[in-house]
Structure formats: structure tokens, C-alpha cells
Amino acid sequence: MTRLLTLPAGLLLAALPAIAVQAAPAAAPDNRPSSAVNVFIGTGGDGHTYPGATRPWGMVQLSPDTQTRHFKQSYPWAAGYRYEDDTILGFSHTHFSGTGHSDLGDVLLMPYTGETKLEPGYPERAFSGYRSRFRHATEKAWPGYYAVHLDDQDVDVELTASERVGLHRYRFPAGLDAKVILDLRSSIYNYAGKNLWSSLRVRGDSLMTGMRSTRGWAPGRQLYFAIQFSRPMLTHELHNREDGVEYRGFAGPGSGPADKAQVEGKALVAAFGFGPQSRELLVKVAISPVSEDNAIANLAEMPGWDFDAERDKARAAWDTALSAVDITAEPKQRQMVYTALYHTMLGPTLFMDRDGSYRGPDNAVHKADGFRFHSTFSLWDTYRALHPLMTIIQPPERNADFVRSLVVSQQQSPYGILPVWQFAGLETWCMIGYHAVPVIADAYMKGIPGIDADAALKAMVASAEYGPYGGLKHYMKLGYVPIDLEPEAASKTVEYAFDDWTIARMAEKMGKRDIADRFYKRAQNYRNSFDTKTGFLRARKSNGEFREPFDPTASNFGSDYTEGSAWQYSWYMPHDNAGLISLLGGDKALQDKIDMVFDAKVDEKVYAHMEDVTGLIGHYAHGNEPSHHVAYLYNFAGAPWKTQQRLVKIMATQYAPAPAGLSGNDDVGQMSAWFTFTSLGFYPVAPGSNQYILGRPFVDRAVLRLPNGRSFTVRAEHLAPANVYVGSVRLNGKPLDATYITHEQIMAGGELVFTMQAAPNKQWGVSAASRPYTMTLYDAK
């Protein structure tokens, strides 16, 4: 999902200055993968990434927040932080990476000195509240670590994290009282009434716990926490500032019994004082989806107070995860690839306590048995490339965890369907399709162990046959979604058809012929919304007529298409591109149509009202997912050289080593997964096919360290800016005529070599035998 801000067509992504990777404070070898990551890429513009500390797929994302707290401005601060800002509100423990929707920002802490101010104040008015100015020159960050100097408070802040615990280290000026604000009102999606309820309780001189329930993007979300300080609190104040009324809780040492050291309400804020006796204060914050006691138990994940050791553990965890790919490339490209890999490992996030407890889609507590429950599934985005990438570079246990998390979510769902867009275990109903289905099917087709295939298929079919969802009852009856009965009907029809095909693929492999036949038939439903007269996908009414008038550039939320127009959506039948070629009238017709997509002269005003249609090259919108496979379609029409040509333009204009270096929301890693695959030289156009479509590499060499212990090397001979095209390809020393490579070939290990040249090779990959899989046989026209 990408929501709510428009980049003008032709925007130079490097408008903000390039930023250097911060070096570690101790001597570290430069060849560590984490040293190549630039966590600030995507923190400006529309990328919506955050620079803070987390572990790979960690439950805690401890990061600075700079948002203004005004509802109408919440979208730009979807990740809490924007590189363009110059004040920090505080440091909270949960963040989305790259989404187009704002939420989270739980348990915000802010160190300070001097007068206690319980309101954050305004960024344009210094000293109006507890927020502080900062400078990028004092920021240091790498995977698992973030540091900054707060200018107004003269406090140094350092952050690191384990999976469930965030660790802060504050250094205060000598002789001044060390103080900390805790604000439970603050959130990244901050509007009146978000907090349904919250509580704070002091449990001793250095420990406190609390919770809050919110009604943001996921209604009824509950989060519990435990905060432990490295020094005793000398003073503490608990406040409820609801409706402008002060309900003061507990203040000062020994001023009341322990059971009175608590406060409840919708607008809680607390202040803690530690005196001037030591400049350094450390704070641990553990979170839990289940209870305060579980949050306390999660603190045991991080014993002791050795900040440097915990920072090094976090970095080592990232080096282990990132070392799945060894990249040789020029420095900026290498930095971009490793940063993209980093972004692909920020979600789905772990969402269970150390004892396996988690909160499911029924908002009840469950316990994971033999797997680790994950949430934050941005499925409309990530089924395309992120999850297929994980099947190559991550252990099968992790991929099985994702699948099992999806399947148990279906079993615990009040509606009995798989997640659509889930976080904190809860459904948001954001976006369209039932795209947990291709994630599961792709993993099964690739032989990922640890999947209960029967339970998974049952969940997939239940989701595809749940009539009340998204016009499915009409789709099952008519063979398309009718626009007079359901919005975004054209998009829903083709996305359902692809999902249906993945069900059929999995059912066929399982020997469930009746299910396979039923869903292979449904997979052809995209034809029912394709108008051969105009050559575009169009919305039809329940009487069978296409809606009139028709404008292929028309795009509005809730109209015929989802976050796009006919120019973006008419080529979305990735399982049957030969069928698309036939509908258009042959290979040249598809080539010409995709040429028109890229080469069109499009006025910025055409899509200016659509916040998600960003990163424009003609009508191609790389900042949003429906366009992501389009450049690779030339391979299906016998013109792979055109794919190679288009990829060069996309890579040059849609990504840059700068804060505004992503042309659209990273969408929990999908934009970055596209970049990673394309840099390697191939891309999964149709997850579930077990094929990756060849493009051209953008790195000199990449070694994939496969989870089965083998390695697969991609190498580019004569890689140079002038050598845009692929002259030939060899797999394990033998010429490769196919314009795709299979998952099985990758997992067997070996070497894929591209020989690059300046002129296009228009003979390679032309024949039907060289082309990738499609459901319909190629028609030699």
C-alpha cells in the first residue's frame, strides 16, 4: 500500500544531498555488510522509512519521532521521522517501515534537563515544550544503532535494541538533574480520541509498567510495556491531562503506598527525576502484546546494562542476516543494494512474547506452538517480490514462520479469512485482493518445509470464497467484479484472478484436481474485464456493459482502479501474459503498448490528485506496486532487450543514495525488494511459477549464500554505463537461451554470467521456447 503524497513527474530523487554512512565508534572492518547500509535512505521524500534501532524482523523499532502531531499532516510522518525536520519530539518503540498509513509510535521517552514541560510544544517555537532541536551533523546510525545530540537539552542520546527490548543511553551535562518524560498520548497517527485507555504503575524505585489501547488503523490494539531505569527514581509524577483537567497521580519519594503509585486515563504523561549524581542514565523498555507481567518477563531478554555489548549484538545480528548476499559493485551501488536488503528485513515483524504468547485477529491471547508468530503483513505490496526474495536468502524456518502466522490468523479470524493487511495481529482491511494466498502458494511450490499444506489450502480457499469481502460474491457469480456494486472493480477482478491461479497451482501439486480445475477456471476471469476494442482493462457493470465514458488516465480513490489508472492496471495478469498478448493481437501489439506506457508525455496534473501514483516515467508509476512487473513484460513478447533498456531508466531515476532516494513508500520492503532483485539481474513476475524473469544485472558480482549451504553467483562481464544490453547469458558455463531462471536452478547452486554490450541482441530470447511460463500457450503471431 502506498498512500497520500504526490511526487511531481520527473522529480530528481537526489534533490536532498547524498548522505554518508556513519562509521562505527570502534575499529571495524569496512567489508561488513552493515557498514554499507545507509539507514537514512528513504527517510525523506515519500520513502517513509525510519533510521532508528531494531533487530532483523524485530518487535521493537526504537526510533526518533519528529512529527508535528497535527492530524492533517500525519501522512508525511508515517514512520515518525522526516529527514527534512530539525526538531525531535522523542524516541518511541514501535514504527512502520515505508507504509503509506500512519500509526504506532508507542511509549515515547524524552530525556531533558531544567523545567518540566508536559507538552511537546511546536517545532517552529523553540523551548515551547519538551521537544528539542537537533542537527544531522550529530546523528550517527547503522543497523541496530542510532545516536543524536539534543541541542536544546544538551543531552546525548544513543539507542539500540534486542528483539523485544529497546535500550536507551542518555548522557546529561555535569551538575544538572537528569530527567525523563514518558508520553502515552504521543503517536505517529495522532488525533483526538486515538487513545481508548491507558495506565501507568510504579512498581519500585526503578521499574514501572503500563499499557494503552488505541483505535487507530487497527481498532482495539493493545500494547503493554515495562520500563526499567539503571538508577533509582528520586521523583516521579504521573498525570492524566484528559480534557485539559489535571488528575495528578503519585509524586516524590515515599509520598504514598505502592498501590497509589498509578494513574489511568486517556491522556497520560509522566516525569521522572534522577538527580545530578551521575551523568549517565540507561533505560530498558520491553513491550508485550499480552500483559504487563509478560513485558516484565521480556526484560530478561536483555540482562545487564552493557550498552556497548548490546549495540554490538544488534549489529552482529544484522551482519548475519545481510551476509546472505555478498555484493561486489561500485560504492554507491553497493550501498544502495545493502540498504535495500536491510529494508527488506524490517518486516513482517515478530509479534509474540518470549513464552510464545501473542494477540491474534480475534484480539484474544494465543500461544505459538513450534513457530514464531509474526505480524505487519503489507501483503498487497510484499507478495510481489519481498516474500519471494526471502525464499532464496533466508532459512526455511523463517519463511515457514510467515506462512504459519498467516494460516493461524485465518483460523483465529472472526471472518475465517487470511490477513489482508495485518499488524499487531489485527486486521486493517487496507487494500484489495487476498494476497496472503500467493505468499503461501509460492512458499509451498518452492518446497519450503514446515507448512501444513492441507490447513494452508483450506485457509486459501476459504478466503477466496468469502462472499462478503470485496465483491467476491459477485465475482464468483459473474466472473468479474461489477463496478455498479463494488468500487475498484477492474483492479479487484484481475488481482483475484492472479490469486486464484496460485491456489490452482498449489492444489494441482497437492493432487487436489477438483480444486485446481475450479481455480484455474477462475484465473481466466481477467479476460472478462479486458476490452479488446480499446486494448485496456475496464470496469464492467452487472449487466455486462463496460462503464462509460472511458478515460484510460482517469484515477480516483474508490473508482474503477486501485491507486492507479487503466494505463497502470491493464497489464496485470502476470500468470497469463501470453493470454494478454493474444487479447492485444500479438507480440508487437504488447511491445507497442508497453512502449506507450513508458514513452507517453504525461502532464503532471493528470495524476496530481492521486497521492500514490508517484515515480512517473510516462504512465509508468514506479512508486506504486501495480507497475512493478511492467518493464519485464517485454520478455514474454520476445523483446528482452527492451526490458534491459527500461530497467536502466528506472534504476537511474527511481532510486538514489539520498534521504529522498525512494520514489514512493517502501511499503515494508517491496520497493527495496524490487531494487534488490533487479540489481541481481532477475525478478519474480509471477510468484508461484518458480521462475524469475531475466533483466540485466547492476552489480559486478553477487554471491547468494543459500540456506541449503550452497551458493549461487551472479556475475556481469563488461559491466559499464555504455553497456546497457545483455549480449549472452551462461548458466554453469553453458549458454542459456531462456529469458528466465528457475528457483530450482538457483537452489542447486552454480553461476549465472551475463555478458554485457552496447548494442541490443535482438535474436536472444525471441522464440516461444525461450520465454517464461504463462497459463496460456504462446500464439506465434
From TrEMBL:
It comes from Zemynaea arenosa. One of its GO terms (biological process) is glycoprotein catabolic process. One of its GO terms (molecular function) is peptide-N4-(N-acetyl-beta-glucosaminyl)asparagine amidase activity. SUPFAM superfamilies: Six-hairpin glycosidases. Gene3D superfamilies: 2.70.98.10, alpha-1,2-mannosidase, alpha-1,2-mannosidases domains, GH92 mannosidase domain. Residues 37-288 form the Glycosyl hydrolase family 92 N-terminal domain. Pfam families: Glyco_hydro_92, Glyco_hydro_92N. The keyword Cytoplasm does not apply. Residues 294-757 form the Glycosyl hydrolase family domain. Residues 1-20 form the signal peptide. This is Glycoside hydrolase family 92 protein. Transmembrane segments: none annotated.
